[in-house]
Amino acid sequence: MTHILLINPNTSTATTQMMVDIARTYFASVMTSPPTVVGATVMRGAPMIVDEQDLAVAADAVNDPQIVALAQQADGVIVGAFGDPGIEALRARLDVPVVGIGSASVREAGEGGRRFGIATTTPQLADSIASNVRKLGLGASFTGARFTTGDPLALGDVPSQLESSLAGAVDACIRLDGAQAVVIGGGPLGEAAQALGERFSLPVIGPVPAACRALLQTMRLDEAA
After folding, report:
1. Is there a contact between 2 and 35 (Cβ–Cβ < 8 Å)?
2. What GO MF annotations does this protein's record show (predicted)?
3. Which CATH class name applies to 103-207?
4. Which of 44, 157, 177, 207 is paired with 224 by a 20 to 30 Å CA distance?
5. Is-same-fold flag (3-100+210-219; 103-207)?
6. Pairwise CA distance, residues 211 & 197, whole Å
7. Whether residue 62 has pLDDT greater than 50
8. Per CATH, the architecture of 3-100+210-219 is what?
9. What is the domain partition of the chain in residue ranges?
């Protein structure tokens, strides 16, 4: 059976399990014989990546020998942080496909020249987010990022407030910026992304399912298999 490793670049085991659950549910919805999905949580870093320093630590932690050893046993790997920390170094060490939730969701949002925005909770990562979009060659389609206010960690502890605050950011992307699709920018925001997908008529793209779709395509697995 195909084995997928989902690496959480922050130290929250609850976030790891949430992302693994989303991935398992997605694969089960599109495949009669879905792959197994297991999670790996980095041993050092922050419980949520909120600034450039956290992102740098996460890049190193993702390439920790213990994480790499687990990844070498997998058939495919998902890096579950929106900045895709450490992904290039990890790819260089592995012979299997490695997909990041950030690049996967942004590419999906910008398909066919579609105008897209990003709604998230981490304003200190604004420059990094915009830079990553440009590196993917999608700067011309990017309408900008909209951020919630207040402490991202505190907001994440209250799911109803997180969803409500992100809904406001999604609305601003659509109504004020002219986005035709909106990416929810962050692994810890995965459950909120699912809920928001049902609240808006335009596509609201969850990063974990987007990474699952990208990995299936890269691995050339038949979604009906």
Report:
1. yes
2. amino-acid racemase activity
3. alpha beta
4. 207
5. yes
6. 16
7. yes
8. 3-Layer(aba) Sandwich (3.40)
9. 3-100+210-219, 103-207
